[in-house]
Design a protein that fits this description.
The protein has 182 residues and is an all-alpha fold. It is built from six helices and no strands. 61% of the residues lie in helices and 0% in strands. α1 runs antiparallel to α2.
């Protein structure tokens, strides 16, 4: 017993009686409130997102923003690349002032338009420079603590009292001996 109608096959019969458009509408109606809340949550997350300090890698932050943009796009929200660029430029720390000025000059330029890749590159270069500078300063501090001259006198600064030429561990030992003698 076969029917001449293509939808009479049991595989095409569903709760909507074979009408896929009706089934899709019912699914959308069922999940629309949840999607709206998710969309609002993602929009809020995007709006409050900022580069918190100079230790945060801007590349990771930009990837996070692009991920939020893609999720919002799936939910039907339209956000342009320019929207992301403007958001990034408005939410940088003061450590990126020079790059910000340079990038703002290109924003809206017809001859040399600013792209998200340009922003990422500039910020990553600055981040790498700051990271190297910080590592260099930490190495200098470590070297100053280890610095001994030929006479054997410590040239660094005491981490306990701040005096030059004094070592905190020796100072603590001296105080402990003084306390024991009393």
């Amino acid at each position: 017993m076969t029917s001449s109608l293509p939808h009479s096959d049991w595989r095409w019969q569903g709760s909507a009686g074979g009408n896929a458009a009706l089934a899709w509408q019912r699914l959308k109606a069922k999940y629309a409130p949840k999607l709206t809340l998710k969309k609002l949550e993602l929009c809020r997350e995007f709006q409050v997102s900022q580069l918190k300090n100079s230790n945060q890698d801007p590349k990771i932050w930009i990837m996070y923003l692009e991920g939020l943009r893609m999720k919002l796009k799936v939910l039907g929200s339209v956000m342009t690349k320019d929207d992301i660029i403007v958001h990034i430029l408005n939410n940088l720390t003061d450590d990126y002032k020079v790059q910000l000025s340079k990038l703002e000059d290109r924003l809206g330029s017809m001859s040399n338009p600013l792209t998200i890749d340009d922003v990422r590159t500039e910020l990553c270069l600055r981040y790498a420079h700051m990271k190297n500078k910080k590592a260099s300063a930490e190495n200098k501090q470590k070297d100053s603590k280890k610095a001994l001259v030929a006479t054997g006198k410590y040239e660094g600064t005491c981490t306990f009292c701040g005096k030059i030429g004094q070592i905190a561990t020796q100072e603590r030992r001296k105080r402990e001996k003084d306390e024991q003698l009393e």
